[in-house]
Amino acid sequence: MIKYILKRLMYILLALFVIVTATFFLLRLAPGNPFASERNFPPQIEEKLNETYGLNNPWYIQYKDYLIDAATFNFGESMKYKARSTNDMIAEGFPVSLTLGIEAMLLAIGFGVLIGVIAALYHNKFPDYLATTFAVLGISVPSFILAGLMQYFLAYKLQLFPISGWKGFSYSILPALAIALSHMGFIAKLTRSSMLEQNNSDYVKMARAKGLGKWTVVFRHTLRNSLLPVVTHLGPLTAHVVTGSFIVEQIFAVPGLGKHFVQSITNRDYTVVMGTTVFLSIILLFAVFLVDILYSVIDPRIKLKGAKK
Q1: How close are the terminal C-alpha atoms of the chain, in Å?
Q2: Which of 12, 25, 61, 68 ranks highest by number of CB atoms within 10 Å?
Q3: DSSP states of 274-288
Q4: What does the alpha-carbon distance between residue 134 and residue 210 come to, in Å, rounded to a whole number?
Q5: CA trace torsion 96, 98, 99, 102 (10° rounding)
Q6: Distance CA 103, CA 249 (A)
Q7: For residue 151, what is the DSSP state?
Q8: What count of other Cβ atoms lies within 10 Å of the Cβ of residue 173?
Q9: With contact defined as beta carbons under 8 Å apart, do 138 and 184 qualify?
Q10: CA dihedral defined by 238, 244, 250, 255, rounded to 10 degrees?
Q11: Which of 149, 150, 145 is nearest to 161 (CA)?
């Protein structure tokens, strides 16, 4: 296990190096600069700003400086917002995005697994057809479309929830649902397929022959093995929830990390773009790493490649 963990940590460091390098050069290759839109700046002031932020240095000096800053988690000052560091902006926005993301993941996993189990237990019956229809609709409709529809019908027309903002738990329900619904549908389909496969296995038939009830068989036998495909999806789910929440945060005016990230791209704010990219990459890579570790917890029969036998 220790050997496997060390090996995966090396892969994570390599992936981060590639991400940092790609982000740096893609931003530098894009036309323009962070101060191009500041029409009121005299050339002398713009030159001074470029010198202050090191934009006049050769690309390899800028690249070396950024690698050092990224390694020490010092992402520098924002080029657009005076006296604001990238670290402060991440510390301000990430807790909000994390709260929204955890809420969306809990909704997606909890209801997705429940719907999938019900669909499998009532295979080829009305509950199965209803659950399948819901899953297909959830997967097909993008989260930002769902966000707009919920905002109009549930918040504006029916006035069941606040339209936008972030002033309490009620403000998080609609954006969390908008993010969760598509993943909920996919998890429901995964759980249904896995449950149907497990229902035909010998150990489940033996449990039924012993006279165990339907739900007892589910919770004691089939559900644990059926969760493996769901656990596999947790890595991509984390990525989709984190990145997909950016647009939803904008729609619902949620003051999360997505607001800073989208604005920094629009403003060509190099330090904020690269800092948030590295930070989110670390979160996503470690999420995938933890998913791999969870395999052996859910099913001890699984041997991690590279782990000691």
Answers
A1: 9
A2: 12
A3: HHHHHHHHHHHHHHH
A4: 35
A5: 160
A6: 14
A7: I
A8: 17
A9: yes
A10: 10
A11: 150
Amino acid identity for residue 284 in this structure = L
Q: Which contacts of 287-295 are long-range, i.e. CB under 8 A and separated by 24 or more positions?
A: 287/234, 287/235, 287/238, 287/239, 288/235, 288/238, 289/8, 289/9, 289/12, 291/231, 291/232, 291/234, 291/235, 292/8, 293/5, 294/231, 294/234, 295/228, 295/231
How far apart (Å, rounded) are the C-alpha atoms in residues 204 and 199?
Answer: 6
User: Could you identify the residue written with the tokens 């309490």?
Assistant: 168
Task: Return the higher-pLDDT residue of 263 and 103.
Answer: 103
In the chain, the percentage of residues whose pLDDT exceeds 90 is 19
Measured CA to CA, the distance from residue 240 to residue 223 in angstroms comes to 25
Q: What's the CA gap between 56 and 49, in Å, rounded?
A: 9
CB 306 within 8 A of CB 7: yes
- Res 298 pLDDT > 80: no
Alpha-carbon distance of 260 to 176, in angstroms, equals 19
The DSSP string of 258-308 is HHHHHHHHHHT-HHHHHHHHHHHHHHHHHHHHHHHHHHHHH-TTPPPTTS-
Task: Tell whether pTM > 0.70.
Answer: yes
Q: Which residues contact 37 (CB under 8 A, 6 or more apart)?
A: 267
8 A C-beta contact, residue 102 and residue 174:
no
> Are 306 and 268 a contacting pair, CB within 8 Å?
no
Question: How many whole angstroms separate alpha carbon 2 and alpha carbon 306?
Answer: 9
- Look at residue 32 and give its three-state secondary structure: coil
pLDDT tens across 213-256, in order? 777 777 777 777 777 788 777 777 777 777 667 888 889 989 88
Q: Say if residue 38's pLDDT is above 90.
A: no
In whole angstroms, what is the distance from residue 302 CA to residue 34 CA?
50
**Beta-carbon contacts of residue 156 (< 8 Å; ≥ 6 apart):** 163
